[in-house]
Write a structure and sequence with these properties.
Elements (H helix, E strand, L loop, with lengths): L10 E5 L4 H12 L3 E6 L3 H13 L4 E5 L5 H15 L4 E4 L14 H25 L5 E5 L3 H4 L5 H20 L6 E7 L5 H4 L4 H10 L8 H12 L9 E4 L5
Parallel strand pairs: 1-2, 1-4, 2-3, 4-5, 5-6, 6-7
Helix pairs in contact: 1-9, 3-4, 4-6
């Protein structure tokens, strides 16, 4: 593991850390010297494997579980990270659910499920983070570049992520004077199971070509932005950072 002077001794909690972008963020922060709480909702085994990988390279990490929309579960998760490492400096909230369908056809149960995880979950995690993060820390929530591109079938998902953006920008202002930054990352098309599920090869290729870089993003591309916001980016606050290879 490598570490930097800005991250040595710092502690991060990554929700949704067992796979996709969350996993890449946990790995990157651990490589930067953070002790990491790897959160999972349903895949404990995958989270435990990631912790084993981090610790085998000399890092510090634990798993914490629970529904991000359950305040008691998140309080317990925050407690566990604080007890293990002495405090929390960074919370990266990648946990999310995406169901795609035209607005006219979307099952309202799917709408409720997305809202529970994406909106209520982001609110619950941000609420705990705002109360607990130490000075000099950072909260990083997740939106999507589709709030700008407005692709069909993403209506309900974008509605939930637009809510996260609004919540994030207000929280940044509510934490005035506490030396805590609050930002959102809005990825473009990124090669994760969440993004690729249900898309045929032609659709995926078309989305890749829509990006001036002519490729899909990789989870590591997004983790690079998160690492910047988590540590050295102390003058970036109350922003939505579109990490999408130039997608309009």
């Amino acid at each position: 593991m490598t570490s930097t002077s800005t991250s040595t001794g710092r502690v991060a909690l990554v929700t949704g850390g067992s796979g996709g972008i969350g996993r890449a963020c946990a790995e990157r922060l651990a490589a930067d010297g953070y002790a990491v709480g790897v959160h999972y909702a349903g895949n404990r085994a995958r989270a435990e494997r990631l912790v084993e990988e981090i610790t085998s390279r000399g890092g510090r990490a634990i798993t914490v579980g629970g529904d991000v929309a359950d305040e008691d579960a998140m309080r317990t998760a925050f407690d566990a990270v604080e007890n293990a490492f002495g405090g929390i400096d960074v919370v990266v909230n990648t946990a999310g659910v995406m169901v795609l369908a035209p607005i006219a056809d979307l099952d309202l149960d799917d709408l409720d499920r997305m809202h529970r995880t994406n909106i209520r979950g982001a609110f619950v995690v941000s609420r705990q983070a705002a109360r607990r993060i130490r000075g000099g820390g950072a909260i990083v929530n997740f939106s999507t570049s589709v709030t700008r591109t407005q692709f069909p079938t993403y209506g309900a998902y974008v509605a939930s992520k637009a809510a996260v953006e609004g919540m994030t920008l207000i929280l940044a202002r509510e934490l005035r004077g506490k030396d805590i930054t609050v930002n959102a990352v809005a990825p473009g098309p990124t090669a994760t199971p969440l993004f690729l599920d249900g898309k045929d090869e032609q659709t995926v290729a078309g989305l890749a070509q829509a990006v001036p870089m002519e490729r899909l993003g990789q989870p590591e591309d997004i983790a690079e932005t998160v690492a910047f916001l988590a540590g050295p980016a102390r003058w970036v606050n109350g922003q939505v950072v579109f990490t999408n290879g130039g997608l309009a």
